[in-house]
Specification:
The chain starts with a helix and ends in a 12-residue tail after the last helix. It has 9 helices and no strands.
Length: 183
């Protein structure tokens, strides 16, 4: 992930990966089928991690407001911790195999629908009139969150917690009260 993020997928070689990992080419090929296979596996890793964490959040009995807050924080956390993976997965989609690309699109659609349903749950629980289409709001929010790797510097002045709070404050326009911490 670090090599792909630093050099770009097309410019990276298996030798670059060997050098970064500190192993020989024969050792790499014991575990890695090819560079395209490695990219596909990164997609599986990132989407799997996100899916598990979202599933755990959605399975709780927490209020929709709290679930949305947790989802925003989860995305900020993962984007910060898995910056190289996110950079590769979200910027190199044209390089994915046909099967992985199709799976990624299906997964993305499902995640967006889950988030849109949660937004609808929040609006109902707060008795809000929809200020924006929940699917549009979900798409915009998730695109913003998964794109944090492009500009957010985790060692900069804005901490991941502060960033999550700012995202929630922004979402409070179409979803009033979302930025309140009280139940």
């Amino acid at each position: 992930a670090h090599v792909f993020a630093r050099k770009g997928y097309r410019s990276s070689t298996i030798d670059d990966i060997c050098l970064e990992a500190g192993v020989s080419r024969p050792t790499i090929y014991k575990y890695v089928e090819s560079k395209p296979w490695l990219l596909d596996q990164m997609v599986v890793l990132v989407t799997g991690e996100i899916s598990v964490r979202i599933g755990a959040i959605l399975a709780t009995a927490d209020l929709p407001r709290d679930k949305i807050r947790q989802l925003v924080s989860m995305h900020v956390d993962l984007t910060t911790r898995m910056r190289g993976h996110y950079a590769t997965v979200y910027s190199e989609q044209t390089e994915l195999s046909a099967a992985t690309s199709a799976g990624f699109r299906t997964w993305s659609h499902a995640i967006t629908q889950q988030f849109a349903a949660l937004i609808d749950d929040y609006a109902r629980s707060e008795r809000l009139a929809p200020a924006a289409d929940s699917t549009v709001l979900a798409n915009l929010t998730l695109t913003m969150l998964t794109g944090l790797y492009r500009w957010h510097d985790p060692s900069g002045p804005t901490s991941p917690d502060d960033l999550a709070d700012q995202v929630l404050a922004m979402l409070s326009g179409p979803l009033p009260g979302l930025d309140r911490r009280d139940g």
